[in-house]
Amino acid sequence: MAVPKRRHSKSRKRIKKAYFKIAPLNLRACPKCGTKTRPHYACVECGTYKNRQIVKIKEKKATPKDA
Ligand SMILES: [Zn+2]
Q1: How far is the CA of 14 from the centre of ligand 1 (A)?
Q2: Please, where are the H alpha helices in the chain?
Q3: Cα of 43 to ligand 1 centre, how many Å?
């Protein structure tokens, strides 16, 4: 089995690891309610996409703590 000839320095290791950084999510404001949503996805808050109602959003149930 092939074995690495030399170990990577801390700098080499960190330069390599820097490429695996997770890019932040690309978010757009929903035209109806203004919450941040992913492009090409229906809005999580109001369930609209391109100003059309796509998904029915259930009303949040009131918990005993709220009353
Ligand atoms: Zn919305």
Answers
A1: 40
A2: 10-17
A3: 5
